[in-house]
UniProtKB/TrEMBL annotation:
Keywords: Repeat, TPR repeat. It comes from Paramicrobacterium humi. The lineage of its organism: Bacteria, Bacillati, Actinomycetota, Actinomycetes, Micrococcales. The keyword ATP-binding does not apply. Signal peptide: none annotated. Transmembrane segments: none annotated. Pfam families: DUF5107 (PF17128), TPR_16 (PF13432). This is DUF5107 domain-containing protein. Residues 65-377 form the DUF5107 domain.
Amino acid sequence: MTDTKTTRQHAALLPEVPEPLRARSEAGHAVAWLESVTIPTYEPDEPADHPMYLDNRVYQGSSGRVYPMPFVEGVSRTPVPRVWQAVHIDNAYVRLMVLPELGGRIHSGYDKTTGYDFFYRNSVIKPALVGLDGPWVSGGVEFNWPQHHRPATYFPTEFTIDLDDDGSATVWCGDHDPFARMHGTHGIRLHADRSVVEILARLHNRTSEEQTFLWWANAAVRVHDEYQSFFPQDVRYVADHARRAITAFPRADRPYYGVDYQERAKNLPGADRIDFYRNIPVPTSYMIVDTDEAFFGGYDHAAGAGVVHWADRRISPGKKQWTWGNSPFGHAWDRHLTDEDGPYVELMAGVYTDNQPDFSWLQPGEVKRFSQFWYPIPGIGVAHQATADAAVHVDVDSSTGSTRVDAAFAVTRPTDALLRARDTTGTVYSERAERMLPGDVVRIDAKLPAGVSASSIRMELVENGAVVLQWKLADADDEEPWSATEPPRPEDIDSVDELYLTGLHLVQYRHPTRSPMPYWTEALRRDPGDARVHLALAKREYHRGRYQSAREHAEAAVARLTVRNENLRNTEAYYVLGLILARMGDDDGALKRFGKAGWDRTWAVAAGFESACILTRRGESEQALADLEPLIAHGAEDPRATALRIVLLRRLGRNADAARTLEQVRTESRVDDLLDYLADGIRPVDGGLLVDLALDLAAFGETDAALAVLDEATMSPIVPSGSVRPLAHYLRAQLLEQLGLTGEAASERRRGQQADGRWCFPVGLSAHDALTAAVAADPSDGVARLLLGMLLYDNGRRGEAVEQWDAAIAAGLDDAVLYRNAGLAAYNVVEDDDLAWRHYERARELAPRDARLLLEQDLLAEKLGHSSESRLERLELNLDLVASRDDLAVRYAVLLTEADRADESLRWLESRQFQPWEGGEGLVLAAWDAARSALGMPQGEPPLSLGEKRPEAVAPVAVHDDGQTDYFATSLPENLLFHRRGSL
């Protein structure tokens, strides 16, 4: 049951509106302000010092690779009071609290009209090892992009607050995603006279390559036996991740996630209703597969309140529920995420996506804008229809021969409404509801005239003659939808077309265990000139920094496409070839291809921007501006283009025009480092953002400014989200070399060699080019080779990475990270077991207190078939390190049991508090069971200290008996680092 007293206590903890804002608040406007809060916090451990190449990791149905992010593998067991930046947003109906330092998430949403927390408010910040990068917190609303869970979910965002003249208040949060460095901004807005929380998203592909993305707003709600999630009434089926399984909804009609709901319902009527949390015993996702409606939500029958989400159905089809499950297994996870606030479910809303994984595309420079709306509802029951303005619950009873309707309406703004029932003959019942307010429930309970059938009824809320809300009985198709299947092997696919599309699917959906290459290789075997495949390979090779190979594929694509016609319907091949030539230093060739690409409107803006950048760097400012102006005038929304226009206007002395442009664009792009810099010279603090700003400036030919920003980046904080200090030196060196300042460039490279390289994991083509130039300038630079090898290894250029690391060792760089990387590659790529072991031995000599290295050495020892005795002896010599990591502690316990020391194993396991990793559950429990079994003890109930309970269903197989990884595998913890399959 919901604890109303606790809910109201939560409200009492919210700070009062500060004095300077009270007049605005009392005038009925929304207000927002920054006021820190102290929350008990379980701090994450520091990340590992080593880059994590988790090629086989499956995460949310797609790739769980984390490079270039440092990887966090533990969380403190003891909370400390921590002061968090918090933005509070308030109006007459709703109070929100936003935490910019936690990915810009909404921490709480409180309905002032009912005293109900319509978003789950967690009293503590208690991360569990659930996130892509490790720590993840439950509660509130998390905004997931460009994949799930948000890669930067535990990283700080930049933010700003707007108090607008229309009475609204908005906090804008923005960051660059760690992978492609795209920019995501979300605004959290309250209006003056509405109970709606509007989310304004702005997703910008600030790169020159097309990128994939998804967007899910992940709202948590507190649950119990009487909490019901609801979808539109036309939803008949729901699907698992990747649509690998489906079931009927709301009554599951088949086994789902290993649970036979029909069998359960035989003993407990209603137990097949998966819209109630109480009936779902295992961790379970379900996503709608089709609806004509735009809303969904959840309702707390005990509290008489709930929440609705609404968004434009044309772009927002995604509607999902997730739960850990109402069972000891799920409750164990609840305890890892909160101290006292109990279970929750996630109500997730997807835009440009309806499943996970389900990625869409962003073209170079493209901006996508959209809004989502969340709002609390009072005691109407589950919503049967909802818009952003109102919601209604309708019960129709025709059992007595006549039709009776009971409808409960709620609104999100003050409304003078006409509530009516209509059928094909017109209005059959109506009544007025003067001045409905958010929080009010207005009911119609009426017997309708004879002859009015339930199927013909339309319940409506009308305002000023306009229908604001209309409900009717759903007329849904009960035909069972499709579910996904594994693609055939390449040789079993009939057409080159399907081979190409299969490879594209694997790329787009970031499949964790399948490569597109076998499909595209087979396609070219059958048709060596296929343009689509060559273009796909050109983009793949370009992204990996293999420019010559990329050029060959792009030229092959152009050759096939222009066999009959040089004026192409789609000029992407010219655009891609232009990018490649520009990276190779052939600006004239690039300009020629970009010019041809501009003949096609689809690529005109992206190609025109790239051309303008080249012209700007060459000092041809008038021509660059002349090329740029038409692109902006014809609707190009790319903020990079507007920023370049400002730079060019200033160069040409048109400062007033530049100022007007800047003022206009800053109202549209609220969190933008480049525009902030051009306006006020403001620079971000984060090193990665500083590098991004510098690269933007360098692309515009603002070399001196770029050098200054990079100099600041060389002194930026070394934080768990990563460091750029050495890389910033090498980027400066490259710019200095281009200016002909060879001596200064060499000095800068020496500074890079001496910089603190902790958590510096380079990514991107600019880093690739700078490090490649550094190695060419000084082949003895072991640091540059170490960093370049990291980037190459992540890019699938494994053999080249080995060459760089071997050369760094030969140059005398004695570094634990280097030897660890070389050892990993020696096993995975070179397949030299002895060399791998020697490298790990040296890494541990250099960093004997590194527990991660000890873990990996033991993993390698197991792979190499070392005896259990030798492994146990090594761990016992480092027992304090073993005790510092759960994974090492479990391995130690297993070895103790194998050594006939099960009593010690059991005592060891029961003496510590474990934290499971989502997807890796069961390892601790298996070790505990094995120790008890060795002692002749029966299977028992695991103690709470193990951190997990027995699941009620068996997870799908990940690896089949023949050694093949299942196409829909959900977890592969046993082969995350050490595996042999060659280059990607």
